[in-house]
Write a sequence for this structure.
């Protein structure tokens, strides 16, 4: 990958580190992903990774039904926005909106997307959508039904590591030409929650300020505007120690510290902390459940059977897509679905 000056991001990082010292893991991950997503469509068999909406139309359809159902039971407010964070190819939005339309759900569509390459792909899938760089320009009136699938995991994490001298920010330095994670010099103890400070030497704590800020903003809007939200990602529902930073390229795990900007960097999502952030800003936490259980509660098995009946020649593909989304050894357990709602809205299905 080359930058405006014709150099790779790795070369730019090497110059920066040589001149000013190590950079934080958060800085490294943020710049690497900004470069990565701005320059390509990474999704699909020919790309680097495959997401749930790209596996089967059933995924987006069930999300559309979830939205239509809660909207109907909230009294079908006319002023309503569909908002999606990081919509990828727009496949989820297309499938969800098609399924929800049958129930009279016809929202304005707002897509929050940073990548110009992906915006162009989304424009083909979702005619009439309005794009935003971040949530701040999404209308502040009217109810909001918001969905984010594999968005939070792409936001940069800050890592702290426990050394003999105390907690330090985890940084990226240089060993010859190679990027290596090292402990920084500045004490971080005050930034670590008191109940987590005591740990074995070498323990790592991750936090994701961008995810917390997103949940803060979404929760505040749900409270004021009304509506509901689904956050789907791979993550954990109890806080834990350890680095979960990983890089994927051409469907294989690669070293996150090799060639920044050319692989997708992700970290597991800390759903426990994000639920607390949302609740402390007024939203109602509906629950955090495993993706497999949620899809089954939403009726994926009946939907798969119906699709098999109408296209028997694709029955094997439909069944294997269902298994990929639902089975615990595939995406069913690692991926979680977190639901949030306005305090004045009803409960959501599947929690
Ligand atoms: N939700 C899609 C795509 C997931 S990939 C799917 O499930 O297929 C992550 C998406 O988030 C991409 O669309 C990427 O461009 C977008 N993204 C990543 N970081 C972002 C940021 N900081 N601001 C806006 N969009 C971002």
């Amino acid at each position: 990958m080359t930058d405006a000056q014709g150099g790779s991001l790795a070369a730019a990082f090497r110059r920066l580190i040589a001149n000013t010292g190590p950079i934080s893991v958060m800085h490294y991950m943020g710049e690497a992903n900004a470069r990565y997503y701005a320059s390509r469509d990474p999704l699909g068999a020919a790309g680097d990774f495959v997401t749930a909406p790209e596996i089967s139309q059933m995924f987006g359809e069930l999300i559309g039904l979830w939205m239509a159902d809660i909207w109907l039971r909230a009294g079908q407010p006319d002023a309503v926005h569909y908002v999606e964070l990081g919509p990828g190819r727009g496949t989820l939005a297309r499938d969800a909106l098609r399924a929800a339309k049958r129930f009279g759900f016809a929202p304005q569509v707002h897509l929050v997307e940073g990548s110009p390459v992906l915006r162009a792909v989304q424009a083909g899938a979702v005619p009439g959508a309005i794009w935003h760089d971040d949530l701040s320009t999404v209308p502040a009136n009217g109810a909001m039904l918001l969905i984010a699938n594999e968005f939070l995991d792409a936001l940069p994490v800050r890592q702290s590591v426990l050394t003999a001298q105390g907690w330090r920010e985890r940084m990226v330095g240089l060993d010859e030409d190679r990027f290596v994670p090292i402990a920084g010099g500045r004490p971080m103890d005050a930034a670590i929650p008191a109940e987590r400070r005591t740990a074995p030497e070498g323990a790592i704590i991750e936090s994701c300020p961008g995810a917390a800020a997103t949940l803060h903003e979404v929760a505040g809007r749900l409270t004021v505007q009304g509506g509901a939200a689904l956050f789907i990602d791979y993550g954990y529902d109890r806080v834990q120690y350890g680095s979960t930073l990983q890089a994927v390229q051409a469907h294989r795990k690669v070293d996150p510290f090799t060639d920044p900007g050319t692989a997708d960097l992700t970290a597991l999502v800390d759903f426990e902390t994000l639920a607390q952030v949302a609740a402390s800003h007024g939203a109602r936490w509906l629950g955090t459940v495993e993706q497999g259980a949620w899809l089954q509660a939403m009726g994926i098995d009946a939907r798969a059977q119906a699709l098999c009946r109408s296209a028997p020649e694709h029955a094997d593909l439909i069944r294997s897509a269902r298994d990929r989304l639902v089975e615990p050894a595939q995406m069913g357990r690692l991926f979680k679905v977190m639901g949030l709602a306005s305090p004045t809205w009803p409960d959501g299905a599947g929690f």
Notes: The radius of gyration is 21 Å. The pocket of S-adenosyl-L-homocysteine is lined by residues 33, 37, 43, 51, 53-54, 86-88, 92, 112-115, 118, 149-151, 154 (CB under 6 Å). The first strand starts at residue 23 and ends at 24.
